[in-house]
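Exercise (ungraded).
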Amino acid sequence: MTTQFPVTSGSPSAPGETRRVDEPLLEIRDLAVSFTTVAGEVQAVRGADLTVYPGQSVAIVGESGSGKSTLAHSVIDLLPGTGKVTGGSIVFDGRELVGLDRREIEAMRGRDIGLVPQDPMSNLNPVWRIGTQIEEALKANGFQGGKAERKERVAGLLAEAGLPDAQRRARQYPHEFSGGMRQRSLIAIGLAARPKLLIADEPTSALDVTVQRQILDHLEVLTRELGTAVLFITHDLGLAAERAEHLVVMFKGRVVESGPARQILADPKHPYTQRLVSSAPSLASRRIQVAHEQGEESKELLAHHADGVARSTDVVVARNLTKVFQIRGARPGASTDFTAVDDVSFTLGRGSTLALVGESGSGKSTAANMVLGLLEPTSGSVEFDGVDVASLDAKELFAFRRRIQPVFQNPYGSLDPLFSIYRSIEEPLRLHKVGGKKQREARVRELLDMVALPQSAMRRFPNELSGGQRQRIAIARALALKPEVIVLDEAVSALDVLVQAQILELLGDLQDELGLSYLFITHDLAVVRQIADSVVVMQNGKVVEHAATDEVFDNPREQYTRDLLAAIPGARLEGAELAG
Amino acid sequence: MLWYLGRRLLQLIPVFLGATLLLYALVFLLPGDPVAALGGERGLPEAVQEQIRQRYNLDEPFLVQYLLFLQGVFTLDFGVDFRGREILDVIAGALPVTFQLAVMALVFEAILGIGFGLLAGMRKGGWFDGSVLVMSLFVIAVPTFVIGFVLQFVVGVQLGWLPVTAGRDPNFRSLLMPAIVLGAVSFAYVLRLTRTSVAENLSADYVRTARAKGLRRSQVTGRHVLRNSLIPVVTFLGADLGNLMAGAIVTEGIFNINGVGGTLFDAITRGENVTVVSLTTVLVIIYIIANLVVDLLYAALDPRIRYA
């Protein structure tokens, strides 16, 4: 991915926090932002302070709903919907921004303050060419020069953002680009008019980890060369600490702590920051690794303890699994074969956790669906407790489904919004005709206890619950039939870090209690470190590496595994810098 | 692309055969004997009836009649109706007027519907949005003939701004009011569709990106909101051309226009099978072609759509 720019190794802000003598570039004082809803006014930001000096990189860290995005968007007056600044001041380059009229703020956007938005999939207009969309940014911000020069500049910007073959790329449409390429285009747009400040709103959270790292490295080099100040917004403390000199931690609309990144990491003052530091998966996994390298017993840092469970037998054995999909070709009748899973074998020991790790398109979910019996393998077999799943007839298959249950990624999509929580959890019991009405109700209560939710939750509906609570419901539903194996397909990926940590802990406890086996599908190696006993690394449908977790982290044999490991945010942080 | 176009055009053949067969069967099943009805109260002599039946192949079984009809279609000789007029002339006399009327109605509903819809969607919840919504609801709720007669009386008779009826030789001016009446209901739908689509697109992420680039509001609206919002509207408009042509009968009646609607109604009451089926088939084909054009426009508006 690197173009003409050298990629620096080691820590990005080696000199650490330097006292700057210049005037602040951006100074936010006592800012309040609120949204008008049917229920009245909701305060999203309450009295936040923030200072960014020229050329400095500052990160706002917080979970969803903490007001971090709202704070950043209020700087360029791009608050969504009914959002309004209700108090305080935003001074940029000596000029008060609160209360500017529309034309004045339009003139500043792009030219003085650029934005790299969060989701590369939805932030480019699908009906315009990439080049056209970058050209717009040049035209709107007073680019001097004719059409030919403009085209040349567009290609230059794309190349600068790390897209090879920029001339041709500029003529393509967003849907012809991968997520990483789109994000590079958005960076080109954000930096097109050479703003003094770039607001980067979770610029890579939607991307695969290795791509994420490349893009952040590149952005760092670019902004340093251009002298652009960067305001990062992220939920990942590890990433923030690695990429920014200065951290601002937000919680429920307030800035609870701010200071030099390393200082906050090493010595968090506010209880919320302390919780964040202790449970951010990227940091937690780094801590385990550091402890492990120092030869310390790191078991207490792990989310679960697999050693107590006897692992005599393998409950799931996948042998040479292959899945070929036919893709419709350009002409009628023409089709190409796409091998999503290619000769994949692995074993899941009873009472243990096996992680299938890979980036999007690696075939990990397809493999999981074959284990669940939801997809038929093209060749190869899945053995469950010694029996080939393909040999089961309809009745046996129905019985098999009781023994292996899934939990899916999106807790917002996997629960029927019209079903009460009780009905959602009870449904599998009813379907498999387990017990009478009374017994089923007792079982639902028991399950809610297991996942640490109040029994009163069963009368509620999914929309009344948070993402973490919904995922607990999904786990309770999966446990209802007392399965032996649970397939967790990115089950914690959509959750905030603290909630993620809680769910991982819950899963560990349940495993100890019930002797469950987990097949854990994830793209996030940081989580794997905390929960898995062994790891299967997949790339392009093939198994790259299959070994015990410690082995993979200590001695990764394949280059691809090393890349994945290096891409975990916080991997560059030193052990001494980690509190706890 | 060419593959796609060729396949779509080939699809016309089975649709044509299916539509004509179905229509022919339906007309054939209609109760009553058209030949007997020709004679009125006194009735025609048996011999004359027999002669007419032979001339129009009415004594043949259904399938033979249908095949004879197809033969006529392919040789472009539809024959004559009971009054001795060439059926081809009858179609040629009715179709252009109705087509002009439908296209005028389409242009009216597209321009005003999209314009009003855009303004309403941009200021969703404002007074303009509110009043336009109520107005569109009113237009949808009130039957076409009520709007037609009221407009005819107020604009035509009382104010005298436009001709009251179109008459034998309709021109643009005399078709203006009928076109507005004909397009009124669809105008309301286009307006609502555009409004919803615009309001939704306004909060799209790429619109925020466009604003963050520093584009002026008018540029954001024109380049990023409007074009994306038009995609569903174009689909509706294309399908609507067929509806307007077939649905013009009430409007044509009010404004005394000698178009497809009146001709078709006449032919059905007289039991002129060949006229009914021919005219309806032409409408079916226009409908299909309009839809094909919509699909092509769709691909032009949205580069993600590639036909193969």
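Further reading is listed at the end of the chapter. For now, observe: Chain B has a mean pLDDT of 85. Residues 87-122 of chain B form the longest helix (36 residues).
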